[in-house]
Write a structure and sequence with these properties.
212 residues, OB fold (Dihydrolipoamide Acetyltransferase, E2P), 2 domains, five-stranded mixed sheet, elongated, disordered C terminus
């Protein structure tokens, strides 16, 4: 057997050396501070990033109330946007049933989980060209307290924010029924529709009855 005896544990009631304990805590704190102290290169990088953030702050962080959240979609080779607050959902165009004795822009109706929703073809409603178009396979369902209908789209690009300042008045060449429903147009040529006016317009309501 070895002549060395194992170290004896201090009895539970042994006095605590508070001076030694404080010294250990001070050493640990100093080690931690040194570990988190950035180098000269890191300090310079942090300062550059802060300066860049301060330089961009006035233009980059626009308040939410100055922006408009929209759903962007393509229609007749043009890019459109409509306020997302009026969009209930986007669904595939399936099981469309044509309706007789309705305006030409009413493509038909679809059954959405038991709800009958009319589908509007904005190409005809806005007198857009009908040639050379891809398949219209999306329906953007608009909703207000008194109106629900869907509008056709070639492609739905998704949701984005547009700064209110970026929306300019509609072009003088956009006249008649098209201009009536425009909020404006962006520098990227995105036509921003006025969903509230579309939903409030009585011309879209189908009142004609099928002849008996």
């Amino acid at each position: 057997m070895s002549a060395d005896k194992p170290a004896l544990r201090k009895p539970r009631g042994a006095a605590i050396d508070w001076a030694e304990l404080r010294a250990r805590m001070d050493d640990a704190r100093a080690t931690g501070d040194r570990a988190w102290t950035p180098t000269a290169d890191e300090t310079a990088r942090i300062l550059r990033e802060r300066a860049l953030a301060l330089a961009l702050e006035p233009g980059a962080a626009k308040p939410m109330e100055s922006s408009l959240e929209v759903i962007e979609f393509a229609l007749a080779h043009e890019r459109y946007a409509i306020e997302s607050s009026h969009v209930r959902e986007v669904v595939p165009l399936e099981n469309l049933t044509p309706l007789p004795c309705t305006p030409t822009f009413v493509l038909g109706i679809v059954n959405l989980r038991g709800e009958i929703v009319s589908v509007i073809d904005l190409r005809k409603f806005f007198d857009l060209p009908l040639t050379g178009l891809p398949d219209l396979n999306k329906v953007i369902v608009l909703e207000s307290a008194s109106m629900v209908f869907g509008i056709l789209a070639d492609v739905v690009h998704g949701v984005r924010l547009i700064a209110q300042d970026d929306i300019q008045p509609s072009l003088p060449t956009l006249t008649g029924i098209r201009e009536k429903y425009l909020r404006g147009i962006t520098a990227q040529r995105t036509v921003v529709l006025d969903a509230a006016k579309l939903l409030a317009d009585g011309d879209i309501v189908v009142r004609q009855q099928v002849a008996a």
